[in-house]
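cache lookup: miss for this entity combination. No prior model stored, computing from scratch. Input as submitted by user K.M.:
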Amino acid sequence: MRRVLAFLCVSTFLCAGAVLSRRVSADDLTERAKQLHFSSIVLDTHDDTTQRFFSKGYDIAKRNSDGHVDIPRMIEGGMNGIFFSIWIDGRITGPPAVEKALDQIDAVHENVRKNSRDMVLCRTAAEVKEAHKQGKIAALIGVEGGHMIGNDIRVLRMFGDLGVRYMTLTHFYNDEWADSSTDKPVHNGLTDFGKDIVREMNRQGIMVDISHVSDKTFYDAVEVSKAPLIASHSSCRALCNHVRDMSDDMIKALAAKGGVIQINYERSFIDQAYKDASEKLTGGVVAQFDLFKKECDDDQECFGRKMAEKQKQAMEEGKLPHVSWERIIDHIDHAVKLAGADHVGLGSDFDGADMPEGMEDCSKLPKITEALIRKGYTDDDIRKILGGNTLRVMEQTEKVSRELQAP
Amino acid sequence: MLRITLTAGVFVSTGAFLAAAVTADDISARARKLHFSSIVVDTHDDTTQRFLDGKFDLGVRNVTGSIDIPRMKEGGLGAIFFSIWVPSKVTGPEAVHRAMAQIDAVRKQVHDHPKDFLLATTAAEVREARKQGKIAALMGVEGGHMINSDLGVLRSYAALGVRYMTLTHSGNDEWADSSTDKPAHNGLTDFGKDVVREMNRLGVMVDISHVSDKTFYDVLETSKAPPFASHSCCRAICDAARNMTDQMIKDLAAKGGVIQINYHIGFLSQEFRDAEKAKPELQKGIQAEINKRCGGNEACQLVEGDRVVREYAAAGKLPRVDFTKIIEHIDHAVKLVGAEHVGLGSDFDGAMMPFGMEDATKLPQITEALLQKGYSEGDVRKILGENTLRVMTEVERVSRELNAGS
């Protein structure tokens, strides 16, 4: 979850630029994109929809007028696999964090159970493929923030047994054993215990997610992990200089280890102008988060509403630059040029971030496939980016886990 | 688990039964054959507490406590419910966190001893474990306070393999009264009833050991599946609030449930209880001795409590309770409701064991004693484990039905 950053800024930006001008209207290309998209396994590694399960007005089975994800729109957008994010504020720690995380894991389980005709809980790449074969959406679980294990490796194992398949080592704040990219460093990366956590994740077959962590934590994790890592929802710092994004060197190091950067669609992570404007006026990601936190406490629906209101207002006043969904393509393309098509994927941050124009919800996902075709990507490369790469990391993580657990 | 509350009194013996005591060497070939071909299920063991102290090794024969793999094998114990327990005074998220750590500890033991254990969550898996020559490991949560009034936590426990929950421990929780606390809810609250219904849906057995009589009757009325008492004895023989009256045993049986006899001497023997009351100062001495040996280590306190009391009894300071008292309770319950509704719930590693039942190796003596009493082999098998497996199967069936309807 990135939660409410952004908005604001003067000036009308047209910027997303170059790609736009290449618009082609050939129906056959659109048709080919559709075929490719809907025959691929499209896997999104980061969605904050879990928070909505706790709100009375939300039903994942129905088409909702707000938010980004529900079953009808997933089907419409050809989204076959989703990592539901387990997230609580990083300042909640210890046993209360553990219990709240359990509640969210349970909420995912319950929503999958109640919609078992459309969704199935998956733990392995093979299960995701099987779900796809059966025409069901693969539901997976990621824990977004190491603070939720209550500084206890035993809780990590229980999360794993409950189906959690990745853990982001931190959220906005440092936890007891790892530094975050949006907090003051106190551990110089991973502590010794943090390294043990990474090793245990390897053993349990839980993917190590380095989104949100400080650069030093990232390099420590790369050094310690025996399995490839993922950035479940991060973009490229070279295009948008945000600490939540990855530098070219980090992307290369991640790829060298067999990992994948899953591009985040959040406006202030993909667009420099938007990010600059937002920071100038609000003091950045965490300050923005705290502002809404003060007004809404833990009410996620309130969060979303306030954010939308303020953005709408800022947009109307011309204070926020427009950000086109095609910036997502720029980030994908940058990472592919840097590290190859084997190391890039999709991590939308739907229901947890501000979507760019044209990517208002998951029904718009086929546009990514079409844009990549227009850019000249091969079908194979597109399939990898849409989900194949994530499945490969999952398989590799499972293999490492089997090896480490072998007697 | 029972918390050590001790006693006094200078007792010489519990008498009559001692004379008929069977020793390990006396197990007849017939009893041995019957015992080791039966699936022996024990529905309550507090060994989990020992896992938390990193030094305990379940894989080797220990000189202390009652349970480890070598002794389970020697005693023909085929399935064990490891108890997840934190004291009633620990509540809220802290209780949830500690319970999770214990569930992990059990799962880790099973994982670390793959040749000896299979984690089982159904009756069929218990039978499969036997087929593979392994011990079935199961889990029960001993006290509803560990869900912190949160059905999501209950479901998480179930997903991790918990197959029964005792609705309270020795204190009331937020939604049910305990037999050893002042009633605050008049049995089960409305939420408590929802907990029972959700347990039915999840296929988690409802355990009425520890609860107040009113809670018990509320459960009988609410539960769609047979409840059971994972570790309780007969109040007619030993008048403890933790034991069941004849009427309760009958009502439990009428619902298809099972009373799993607890081996704790304070629940088996009226003499022992009376002695406890007579000399409270002795209890202080025992507690001081336990504290000296264990400090704040709960697992140690449980194991040493058992030892110290036996030392006191051997020295004539406390009544000596023999294992045949277990047989007496089994027999009382069987006469009352038939052999279909009685089983074994030792409370090993959580209570004070009688002489002759110091650990799991002594279990074949129960089979021997029941045969000597004239029980049929079929009835003995039921008591040893088949009754518990029947309740599990029934609970699973109810769960499937409720899920199909939802």
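stored under new cache key. Chain A has one domain: 22-267+322-405.
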